[in-house]
Amino acid sequence: MTDYAKGLEGVIAAETRMSYIDGQKGILEYVGIPIGELASKGTFEETVFLLWNQRLPNRDELAEFARNMHAHTGLPAGMTNRLLALPMQAHPMHVMRTMISALSMHDEDPNNIELDAVRDKAMKILSRAPTIIAYFDRYRRGLPLIDPKPDLDFAHNFLYMLNGAEPTEAMARAFEICMITHADHGLNNSTFTARVIISTLSDIYSALTGAIGSLRGPLHGGANEGVMRMLWEIPTVDDVEPYILGKLERKEKVMGFGHRVYKAHDPRAAELKKLAGQLARDTGNEELYEKSTRIEQVMERAVGSRGIYANVDFYSATTYHCIGLKLDLFTPMFVLARLAGWSGHILEQLADNRLFRPKAAYVGPHDQPYTPIEQR
């Protein structure tokens, strides 16, 4: 029988030039640049250009790329009415999945998979996604919609549309770093989904819709919501240790810890930890941050020797809470960032495509008789 790897563990299914991960050493690089370098010095627009072109832009290229991104923030005619017809109680992840798919119906040539056409579609989708989620959140809160400002960058523009006021520099930078650190991460489940779908020579809308469906699961992008619920369940900082040790004793999962790839510290978590601390002080959420750091200390003592450390979801939850995002918007923020990575992988797949068609190991019976219905 052919070797079987449950969950495709250890199987190499694609080549990429976008991100490199060494889980044993806690290394993540985008096109060779350490994530800490990019997060501390770069912009989200710069990161998207890097992932799509495998190099950093020069000043003129970056300005043109940003202008192009910001020029497409408005929704096509009819899309806003479609959005306002959705149930207010809908989960934003279902809204994102549905509306990204709906964008295909406002594209005169949605099935075009020439690389230049796909790149143009990816730009428009990435630009419009923040508008979709900001419009929906204000609609369900009974607030007037705030149109995008094309002169604002990606981070400032989204928070402006969401809250009706331009954010502080600290908040905008925190959100931008969340976008950078979540933009790509190897052949994770949702990225693999996008590549599998586009490998059939389907369209980018179908591939991205499938990827959003994958990301929604709590074992993938939905984990940061669980982190926030856990923090709310713990009454005070003094209650952290018995709460966490109790979960470990009962063999319950502590959300925000451990990673399928990393057996060392998640390099994305370090940058977010700094941001979460600063934002907590700025927004009066010091106790929330203290709970977070105490949880990390308890977990490191208890299970750090087994390679279980805080992952990117742990401190992104605190960061998103401090910039005023509702809990059910946490995973959609992951979508906003990962659209950059998914689109880059779609371009890579199309440039050297082969249809994904793995085998399954059959473990059922053989040569069974057919039993007539009267005898069953």
Give the beta-strand count. 3
Radius of gyration: 22 Å
- Note the run of SSEs as H and E: EEEHHHHHHHHHHHHHHHH
Helix-strand category: mainly alpha
Strand order of the largest sheet: 1-2-3
Distance between the termini: 33 Å
Question: What is the CATH C level class of the largest domain, in words?
Answer: Mainly Alpha
The CATH architecture of the largest domain is Orthogonal Bundle
Description:
The protein has 376 residues and is mainly alpha-helical. The protein has two domains: 15-217 and 335-351, Citrate Synthase, domain 1 (Orthogonal Bundle); 223-322, Cytochrome P450-Terp, domain 2 (Cytochrome p450-Terp, domain 2, Orthogonal Bundle), CATH 1.10.230.10. The chain has 16 helices and three strands. α5 (92-102) packs across α6 (115-140). The longest helix has 26 residues, at 115-140. The chain is globular.
Topology:
Blueprint (H helix, E strand, L loop, with lengths): L18 E4 L4 E4 L2 E2 H7 L2 H10 L5 H13 L7 H6 L7 H11 L12 H26 L13 H10 L5 H14 L6 H10 L5 H12 L7 H11 L6 H10 L17 H17 L2 H18 L8 H11 L7 H22 L25
Antiparallel strand pairs: 1-2, 2-3
